[in-house]
Design a protein that fits this description.
Elements (H helix, E strand, L loop, with lengths): L1 H41 L12 E5 L2 E10 L2 E12 L4 E9 L4 E8 L16 H4 L27 H23 L2
Antiparallel strand pairs: 1-2, 2-3, 3-4, 4-5
Amino acid sequence: MVLVLTSICLVCSAILGVVYSVTAEPIRQADVAKINKAISSVVPQFDNIPSQEMFKVEFDGKESEVYPAKKEGQAVGYAIKVKSSGFGGPITMMVGFTSDGTIYNTSIVYLSETPGLGAKLTDENIPTRAQLKGLNPASSNITVKKDGGDIDAITASTISSRAFLKGVDIAYQIFLKVQSQK
C-alpha cells in the first residue's frame, strides 16, 4: 500500500512539474503583453520600450514598478503600477503621468471587485476614471465627492471608487519621489 501511494504521488508530481515547465513561459509572456498594453494606454506616445527600463520605487513599505516613457531620449511620462485594497480584494492598476505630473490616463491590470458594481472600474469611460484625465493631483482634490473631493464615485460602489482613487494617490506620491530623485 505504501509503495502504491508513493508511486501515485511521484507520478502526479512529475505530471505537475511537466505542466508547469510547459506553461510557465507562455504565462510570463502573457503577463508582459498585458503590462505593455497597459503602459501604452496610460502614457503619451513614446519610442522606447518602457518595460525594459522599469525600475522599482519603495513607498510606504511597498515596492511599485515605474515604467519611464521616452521620446527621442526625453521623458514624456511615467506609467506607475500600484496596488490598492478594494472591497473584493486588491486592485492592481497602472496610472500614467505626463512629465509635469498631469494624469494622462489609468488602466486596470487586475481586480476582483463585485461584478456589476466595483468591477465597472475596468470601463475607462465611467466618471471615476474619465474625470481624472488631464487633472494634476497637485491642484485637484482627487477623492470622491462624498468625502469632499472632486470625483464622482461609481453608484453603489463607493468603497471601490475610494480604493481606486487611493491607488491613484499612491501613484502620484511615487511620481513625486521619482521626480525628486532626478
